[in-house]
Fold this protein.
Amino acid sequence: MLNAERLRASLPIYGLGEPLYFYPNIGSTNDRAADFARQGSPHGTLVVAEEQTSGRGRAGRYWFTPPDSALALSLVLRPQGLTPETLGELTVLGALAVVEALENVSIEALIKWPNDVLIHGRKVAGVLIEASWLGNELEFAVLGIGVNVRPKSVPPEEEIDTPATCVEAIVGQQVDRHDLLLDVIRGVGKWYPHLGLPEMLVAWDQRLAYRGRMVKVQQLEGEVLGRVQGLATGGSLQLTSENGEMIEVAVGEVHLRPVDMSSK
Ligand code: BTN
């Protein structure tokens, strides 16, 4: 079981994690963090749960968080100047923070554009941003992060559309979830001042999954097939089509899949 006092002793980190609200069991940490934000809770408020009974993923999907096995956390953020078009930068920030925390336990994870965290092609973590707007002004954002740590946290194959894994399956031994959680917070805090700046794009590009591979990107307007080249300004994905033409896919409601079978 996570120990809230142990976490509290190392918080705040870069101004994040104070106050900390810890729940052995909750519906969704994102919902609770949004409630606190609406009541005026400050930037950096952190909600952590041991178990979620209605954990939420992107596109309304269910996010599996059984007890004693995962990380489920949500941060209240109050960034200046973000617009609906640039809100996605917060998702990238969350994914980068997870990737760097995993590097500390010697795992090389990659980011499936735009923001799933993969190890050997299997999803290990997800990021969900939810925002409240006052007209065009961002009132607050909730950055929700879920990480599969122990084998119990990996959802049954029949319930998911992306193959999944967990940190301990890769490391081959128990991982301290306190340290991992604190490292994720550290990563968010470290990248926060660089939100949307070229250095963040470079760090993201360096961790891009499927580089050189053929992928299919499903967009609202239809499907795009191409070989992954890297990121373009603004976080668009650059692909080359089969006849060598350069294609740019903007971040939006998209779904990316490799079309060949190897999983790296
Ligand atoms: C995804 O679909 O990849 C995003 C998953 C995000 C899950 C996290 S767990 C903590 C926070 N609370 C939620 O209900 N969802 C996010």
Summary: DSSP finds six helices and twelve strands in the chain. The mean pLDDT is 93. The chain has two domains: 4-206, 214-263.
